[in-house]
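For reproducibility, we list the full input for the MP5 complex.
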Amino acid sequence: MHDSLWAAATHHTFLDAVRDGTISDSAFDRWLVQDALFVADLLTFQARLLARAPHAARAVLAGGCVALVAELDWFDEQAARRRLDLNAPALPATLAYRLLLQRMDIEPYEAAVTALWVLERVYLLAWTSAVSDSSPFDEFVEHWSTPEFKDYVDALGELAEPNRHAELISDVLTHEVAFWDMALA
Ligand code: MP5
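The corresponding predicted structure, in tokenized form, follows.
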């Protein structure tokens, strides 16, 4: 039922331009800074999700939290390399996504973990669509298209209820589309 939204969230002009190497530095850097802010918000959400998860889900969610901490270091390194200020203000799409994460935080566990699976699967499929032999952004494409990341997304899929929570799933997908749009705006 969400096919067209999944397609919009995972195939986007931004990703095509990353694959082709035609993305402008300003668009790429805008995405990078805002995504670093998003990942910090995601860690807040996921740490709380871990705290209320059933025991069987804890290893996967705890591994995800550790990965988010490492990812924030990685964003710091990427930003320093590109001379970007990660203390920049959050743009409207990032602020709107922050509100959605706060809503997910008060949803029942099953809905919240499903939403987490959706947003991680979006990044897996989206960046996999940007794979090429020659993108100058290889390191970014690789970050979200490794077999390890796919395993993590599949493990979240085991915890998720993809056939329920339709409205929340569509909210997440809509916010993902808006996030790509923001980079190009
Ligand atoms: C992710 C992300 C994936 N970094 N940014 C957005 C807007 N959506 C999803 O999260 P992670 O932790 O980088 O895999």
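The CA atoms of residues 117 and 156 lie 5 Å apart. DSSP finds nine helices and no strands in the chain. Both points were considered when choosing residues for closer inspection.
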